[in-house]
Amino acid sequence: MNQEKFIMQQVKFRVNAKPKISKLILNDTQKEELTNLFNFQPNPSDLSKEIFTTKIWTESEEDQKDAKEYLSFQGLWPPYVSNPTSRWKTRWSDKKNGATLYQCSCGSDMESARKTDVEKQRKLRQMYDFVGCLAFIRVEKNVNNGKYRRVHGYMEHTEACHRALPKKDTPTLRVNCEIKDMTELLVRANTSIKDIISWNQHFIRKKLSGRTTLKDQHFLVTVYDVKDARHWVKAQQKQWPINMNRSVDFNLECYFGKGAQDPDLSNSVVYFEKRKHRHDHIYLVLATEEQLQNNHKYTILKKLLIEYKKRLNNFNGNFQEFTPRIAIIGDFRERIERIVVSEIWNGIDMLYSPHKVRLCWETKADEFLFMGGSNEAIECRQVLRNELTNLFNE
Fold it and tell me: Which one of 108, 143, 145, 365 has the largest count of C-beta atoms within 10 Å of its C-beta?
């Protein structure tokens, strides 16, 4: 699909997908705000300044994978939407054409939607408090094969919406300690916000069957939780001053070279070699004390592996041949890695990364066991998928 044709399709769908305000549960203020957003749209061909989100996917495996990642990230993947604690609620659907309009619960003013007399009104059972969020989205998929076609909507949740948690009988909910610790570790590893949230959603789907709360704890990580964790980690981290008037080579040698003064850094150096000329490379291999003691393996280029092997052979002054039997290669298409590892350790066995095998397994399972069809068919496929997953885990 060429770029011009793709832009025209996006513009056409964006106009046709504009929902009627009456389909959403809004108060007068929200209706005015949303109307203003529609009226202040930029040039239709200038997608870079688009206020609303529009995505179109083909039925290719790559596009459907992208669709799944996007919908999962937004909490719109079927297992998430069907969960009682989902913040997305269906406001309109067209089963014939496979279209569904969702609205954020935090923007659903249920009080304004009431039409009965006050004395006859029942207590609201809204899962989330109303905070005036304007987020909505229209999702379309092929009714014949269940593959996603396109989405359009306003996806800018308010900060109060991001922080909102499902209501419970208990007065407060505590963040699960393991989730908190794992989020902190991912932040320390400079993992992106998108990847942290994706990991959290994967954990909730696989380990908690889609539930975000359990007893008096909640397991959902929001964008603001990650930002708060980053601020906390930054405040706790030790700061090493950098001489901005000197080169990168000079600063690296000060911290990792022979004259390094900071023991936290110098003790972690496995191998360091500074640049000999401007076209040369800097070589730096780091490892913690625990990693050295446990003989953890690395998959890097030959020179670094050789130096690493030498250090492990003579760890603590006692020579002991370091001969690993198995190496896990992230991608077998990386021919150089396989050659280098096999040259340094003859007879070593190389295996796929278990994480990559699991991803391939789940991708194929989702491809052949899509969510379309009757409720009975969906339930049957879900049972089959769970059995296949359990078989893999064994």
Answer: 108
